[in-house]
Write a structure and sequence with these properties.
Helix content: 25-40%
Distance between the termini: 35 Å
Number of strands: 13
CATH class of the largest domain: Alpha Beta
Low-confidence stretches: none
Structural class: alpha/beta
Radius of gyration: 20 Å
Largest sheet: 7 strands, parallel
Order of helices and strands: EEHEHEHEEHEHEHEHEEEHEH
Strand content: 15-25%
CATH architecture of the largest domain: 3-Layer(aba) Sandwich
Strand order of the largest sheet: 9-8-7-12-10-13-11
CATH topology of the largest domain: Alpha/beta knot
Length: about 250
């Protein structure tokens, strides 16, 4: 595994989430000293139960850690998140269960990245594959947007999307890419083997080479002359359509 940058998690819900579900990764929690202790009694109980040190500090200290963001008075210093190696991951996957992954093809907005991770965890997507370049890193914004779910499923970092495309194909995944000009819509598609869904860049969409070489291109039905949806919204629709069909 390779590690992402060091960072702090901020916001009440993300701090509560990581303290409950991944306490071993939390080094220390900082809480704004003007917040009444009774208002975070459950959090302090969780921190004590998991032997996580926490201190109350002034606003200036929190700003020195995370800047002028909406931290809500709660900041956690955590160990680095780890990226997963593709080949180590694929050895642990039961392909007979027809898993699904997202292949992000240049998602540069950390809010989109975080939202995609949250949806992926909720819908049972097995992993999210990201390229080393032209991709938002795993950072505090991503973690906050994911509502603390980043780290619940593997994030696999590869050299580039084209190499990931080839590796997924060799492993037996069927590759689906979103294209507004596709003849098949998402509701009509059949997901009968391991699936990899390509989510393209917020502005440019999916790379032409990947579109050309995908097993299928899919479109989302649109009304009222709407041309496209936000990348994370698109991912959510795909994830839950896959889940619906996968559960039947």
């Amino acid at each position: 595994m390779s590690k992402s940058e060091n960072f702090y998690i901020y916001g009440r819900k993300p701090v509560e989430e990581i303290a409950e579900t991944n306490s071993n990764s939390v080094n220390k929690v900082f809480i704004k000293n003007s917040i009444p202790p009774n208002s975070y009694k459950n959090l302090s109980t969780t921190l004590k139960a998991n032997s996580i040190p926490f201190v109350t500090v002034p606003e200036k200290k929190l700003e020195s850690l995370v800047g002028r963001v909406n931290h809500q008075g709660f900041v956690a210093q955590r160990s680095e998140l780890e990226y997963t190696n593709f080949f180590e991951w694929i050895e642990t996957v039961d392909l007979r269960q027809n898993p699904a992954v997202f292949l992000l093809n240049g998602i540069e907005d950390p809010h989109n990245f975080g939202a995609i991770l949250r949806t992926s965890a909720a819908a049972g997507i097995s992993a999210v594959v990201v390229p080393s370049h032209n991709q938002a890193p795993l950072n505090a914004t991503v973690f906050k947007t994911s509502a603390g779910t980043a780290g619940r499923i593997p994030v696999i970092r590869v050299q580039d999307s084209n190499q990931a495309f080839k590796d997924l194909k060799l492993a037996g995944f069927e590759i689906f890419a979103l294209d507004g000009n596709a003849k098949t819509n998402l509701w009509e598609a059949k997901f009968e083997q391991p699936c990899a869904f390509v989510i393209g860049n917020e502005g440019r969409g999916v790379d032409k080479r990947i579109l050309k070489n995908s097993d299928q291109t899919l479109m989302l039905p649109m009304e009222n002359n709407v041309e496209s949806l936000n990348a994370s919204v698109t991912a959510a629709l795909i994830a839950y359509e896959w889940k619906r069909k996968h559960s039947v």
